[in-house]
Amino acid sequence: MWRRILTLIAKELAQLLSSRRNVAMLMMPLLVQLVVFPFATTLEVRSAAIAILNEDPGAEAVELVNRIAAASAFGTLHPVHSEAGLEQAIDAQKALLGLRIPPDFSRKLLEGTPVTVQALIDGRKSNAAQIAFSYIRGITSTFADERAGQVLPARIERRNLYNPNLDYKWFVLPSLVAIISTIGCLLVTALSLAREREEGTYDQLLVTPLTPGYIMVGKAVPGILVAMVQASVIAAAAVFLYGVPFTGQLWMLLLAMFAYALALSGVGLLISAISASQQQAFLGVFCFMVPSVVLSGYLAPVENMPAPLQMLSAVNPLTHFIALSKGIFLKGFGLAEVVPAVSALFAIAAVTLFVAHRVFDRQARS
Amino acid sequence: MTRTPHEGFSLRRLRALCIKETKQILRDPSSLLIAVLLPVVLLFIFGFGISLDTNRLSLGIVLEDQGVEAQRFAAVAAGSPYITPRFARTRAELATPMAEGALRGLIVIPPDFGARLAAGDGSARIQVLTDGSEPNTANFVASYAQGLFESWLHARADARGLSADPPVSLEPRYWFNPSTESRNFLIPGSIAVVMTIIGALLTSLVVAREWERGTMEALLATPVRRAELLLSKALPYYGLGLIAMAVCVVIAVVLMHVPLRGSIAMLFVATSLFLGSVLGIGLLLSTLTRNQFNAALAALNAAFLPAVMLSGLIFEISSMPAFVQAVTLIVPARYFVTVMQTLFQAGDIAAILLPNLLFLLVSALFWLGLTARRTRMRLDG
Amino acid sequence: MAAGLAVSIRGLTHHYAGQGAEEHALDDVALSVDRGVITGLAGPDGAGKTTLMRLMAGLLKPVSGEIEVLGLDPLHAASELHLRVGYMPQKFGLYEDLTVMENLVLYADLRGVTGAARQAQFERLLDFTDLHRFTGRLAGKLSGGMKQKLGLACTLVGQPELLLLDEPGVGVDPISRRELWRMVQALAADGMAVVWATAYLEEAERCDALCLMNAGRVIFAGAPGEQIARMRGRSVLACDIRGNRRHFLRRALGLPGVIDGVIQGDAVRLVLAEGQAPPVAELGEDAPRIVPVEPRLEDAFIDLVGGGPDGRSALAGTLAEVALPDHVDPEAVIRAHDLTRRFGDFVATDHVSFSVRRGEIFGLLGPNGAGKSTTFRMMCGLLAPTSGEAQVMGIDLKHSAPEARQNLGYMAQKFSLYGNLGVERNLRFFAGIYGLSGRSRDRKVAQMLESFELDRYRRTQAGELPLGFKQRLSLACALMHEPPLLFLDEPTSGVDPVTRREFWSHINALVDRGVTVMVTTHFMDEAEYCDRIGLVYRGRLIAVGPPDDLKRQVADAALPDPTFEDAFIRLIERDDAARAAAGGVP
């Protein structure tokens, strides 16, 4: 029987690669996403605009402003001359953050009296504004410490593990390894089966000695291959083009990719099992993919979500694979860390494949 | 017989085609699914799933020094409402949860902390180890650690009867969204994503469907005009988009308590212009491919992904490199996200709305115009 | 009555964008269509019929030549033309998710038919098509025949002066085809110009005027009678055949004087070359009675294209005799027992029982929606029966389906191979699926490529093949594992006569080797090839027997020599009458 399955797999791959257009459909989004996303999907604050209302003509205030201007996080500084001007600058999104330095800033600083600088934060973009705010807080407190000549009893020494310079690309690329390969795998498993149904070739297969189980294997393996090839391309690009360090074992990454692709093909087959047409399968893929990316921890930490969504996140294969991919790339994951997540993926695969098989089998007997 | 041989644009034909299209929408469960259920689900997922406000961070506190000051620091950490501390004596104990991401960072009080502190030369150090694999969270960890550190300075000064007010303090004041809930800016932005789905994804299927089912050929053999054909596809989905918009706004305002400060009229104008663009993109893809599968796939890549990734909804456009910023200029969602965030949280601010609405208008005219140009009233070409 | 010319075409040449200039879809075509008559546009697949229809409807821009429709240039006066021309494309152009009335209203609005005129026209069209009872039903829920009538009604809204019908009879049962014909005849009688495109020459034969096309060229234009008259004396029927009529046919086709032949029930119908006497000397021994019969247009067409296939199948030499395992009863290699299938309240197949002998061709016939497809699908294991048994080769499909399936070849109604894969790849795929590998697989694929003359299309994508070659490829794939049973679902729907003959010569060769064939069809010439026919109506098997027996059952004084189509229609009418008498339900 394994020969028949090989035949199915060879056919599927031949169909996938049958025309340049198909290959382009698989590879073009991959390449575009590979070029654009690592740069676009950043939560870093760079060259942000700041509005400054400096009411203090003193030298200390000028020095503070200069220091802010010198920071790479901030680009243009808009000087404004009134409280209203500050508010307008934020209203019109000319600035992410507004600073108001009070008239007595220099005097109080020299006197050693505590002085307050007001920061106006654009709540519409609170994440970026908060990050900018914390940068400015760092700048002002260093500045103040120096000026006050006061020696703090202790200092904080910060070190970023796994990614010392907090390079966003180190975070994005291992996650993209997971996200981008998702589309290819679902396409092959969910949509191609729906297409066979629509075009009548599924019936043609069902009158052969193949059972739905074999047909499923014949669809799952190409899906897994596509996902693994795409994931490997991105992983290679991450290391060789973007210089992301690879601290783990290659075979562990491949194992993780396989487990993820298997779980994903289970989901894809399940979607195709319950959809009557390509259009429905497409909607199904869409309805799975969007929440799965949102709930994967890629866009926002899982612990911030309400409990029900955290539970969904735990059964989301993408959550586990992103954790594995980041861990193997950046954190030098060993077996102890890899085994639980990979087991979770295999468990998801077992459940989805089992249910999909039940549905297919029942349909074939109806 | 009422037959005028050379009539041009006919409202009667347009009306007939619109009625037909509307009935098809109402009878197709999948289009209703996209128009009503999907917005609700997506809004909830975006609203609750993407919370960028880190509420409580799990941090490990490693007390390698057991002295009085280290204990004081531990007490401050235990009392903080912002973190969930996990205490340990050695870093090794917390290495695994740290690697697995169960802990977002470690604050280490080194063994010589107490001794150096006593020396009073400022050489005492508190180490903060963040999980750099998530840079955004790492910054939050650093900032929370700074807060703990300052609290500890206060507590220490209080115990000695001294003042520990910092010489310069920064007082934050929130302009709009005072509670700084990320939901308040993510929800208005995700409405743009929902509108993109309705406009582009749904319409990408409709013209292709007529070609696939052979009804286009019959339609082209009637006196129908190009403008009628195009409008009859656009108008019903425009209506559907407005309904979905209303659903979204009600969910956002009533269920999720996102404030809406702008006027409904402005919301209507902006939505209309944006729907013009996305309907145009969807219809164009559908017209060009004449194949539902390819059209939907193209719509996914050309409309949906950019609306999420390149619209400024989650990722700040000004932080992107110049070439990506240039790409975002042709993404209509970019303008609509800005308009929505402003309308919901700030109100009708002409300085922002006008230029963005202008861009939306240009984009709508461009896409609809291109669709009209590429719509053929014959089977060839 | 508006007499005169409705369409005038001269020197029309067209090719599609992807085609080279030498591959013409239409090559120097001339055509005149008169008002008040039905003009048949006949020819095989790829002859250019649809292209010509689309050009007349102003949907394509011709490469060169003159075309004038109702005195207008279809290209530049398209919108005026579209008010006066009704065009029904192949799939009828209906919105399946709209009701009958909504479809009508849409087309009325599009053609500017409003107010009282609309009411009057709707009334007349609904009467005409007998769709009054179904105005609230979704078009997608109509049977094939009703869809076709609705398509016609939508096309007729606005009283067009010219009606263009593109293969309206495909996929529709004989009763509906007859009704459609009557309707169109009535329209032509009122002065409408009608163009009826078809691959079926028995349809074309009934037209008032005829344009025969082949490979983009017009090969005959005139009255069908001219062609039929030309063939007089050349069509004969060989009756009382001793021995196997399939062998007889093959032998007859091998004679130089015989250009065409088909099986017609128990007899064989032959067409002789020009000036040939009936080959009594060669065939008389097996067929004591060779009588002249009325020629048909199909005979003339075959003559025009240089004769039909020779009846030999290259397949014959490659096949081994089917040997049945001991436990299989040769009288019942396929057996249905009390087979019943319900969909909700609806009983699609109602206690159907029959069995098929080894080496027999068994046909399932019935009107659209009668339950013939449901029965067929249960027999090849695509659908599970609600009750009763479906057995092939003594194996119950319910229990060991994969085993049973290794025994059957299946050819679907719609082309259902992988269109984006090459011919050879498709063959290799099915060979692999049926468990062939290595050298035996290579050998089998090479054999199929040769037997079905697919060699030159080896690398062509299956979806791009001409219809006839698609048919061959489908059959080749179904035969890859040399199955003892072959299931054919409307195998030659929409296919021209030459291709149909070729197809059946392969089937005949298979049957000779002991292959058992089960086939569904809407076409009477295919039914004539069957050894026995099961007629399915309202879920039940209302008649079973050889085609000639069924014909004899309905023969009476008024119709002493019924065609199979007559038999089909009468048997169904009788069943209706019997039901009405029994239950009072119409």
From TrEMBL, chain A:
Keywords of the record: Cell membrane, Membrane, Transmembrane, Transmembrane helix, Transport
Source domain of life: Bacteria
Xref: Gene3D superfamilies: abc type-2 transporter like domain (3.40.1710.10)
Leader sequence residues: none
Location(s), subcellular: Cell inner membrane; Cell membrane
Molecular function, one GO term: ABC-type transporter activity
GO CC, one annotated term: ATP-binding cassette (ABC) transporter complex
Residues of the ABC transmembrane type-2 domain: 137-363
Topology relative to the membrane: Multi-pass membrane protein
Residue stretches spanning the membrane: 21-40, 170-194, 224-244, 250-274, 281-300, 338-360
Keyword field contains Metal-binding: no
Assigned protein family: Belongs to the ABC-2 integral membrane protein family.
Protein name, UniProt field: Transport permease protein
Organism (species): Paenirhodobacter ferrireducens
Automatic annotation (TrEMBL), chain B:
Residues annotated as domain ABC transmembrane type-2: 138-378
Subcellular location, principal: membrane
GO MF terms, alphabetically ordered: ABC-type transporter activity
InterPro entries from the UniProt entry: ABC-2_transporter_component (IPR051449), ABC2_TM (IPR013525), ABC2_TM_bact-type (IPR047817)
Annotated signal sequence range: none
Membrane topology field: Multi-pass membrane protein
Segments traversing the membrane: 32-52, 185-208, 235-258, 264-285, 297-315, 349-370
Subcellular location: Cell membrane
Coiled coil: none
Taxonomy, superkingdom: Bacteria
Cellular component, GO, one term: plasma membrane
Alphabetic keyword roster: Cell membrane, Membrane, Transmembrane, Transmembrane helix, Transport
Family per record: Belongs to the ABC-2 integral membrane protein family.
Protein name: ABC transporter permease
Automatic annotation (TrEMBL), chain C:
GO MF annotations, alphabetized: ATP binding; ATP hydrolysis activity
Pfam families referenced in this protein's UniProt entry, alphabetically: ABC_tran (PF00005)
Source domain of life: Bacteria
Matching PROSITE patterns: ABC_TRANSPORTER_1, ABC_TRANSPORTER_2
ATP-binding keyword on record: yes
UniProt-listed CDD domains: ABC_DR_subfamily_A
Gene3D superfamilies documented for this protein: P-loop containing nucleotide triphosphate hydrolases
Record-annotated ABC transporter domain positions: 7-240, 334-563
Name this protein carries in UniProt: ABC transporter ATP-binding protein
Species: Paenirhodobacter ferrireducens
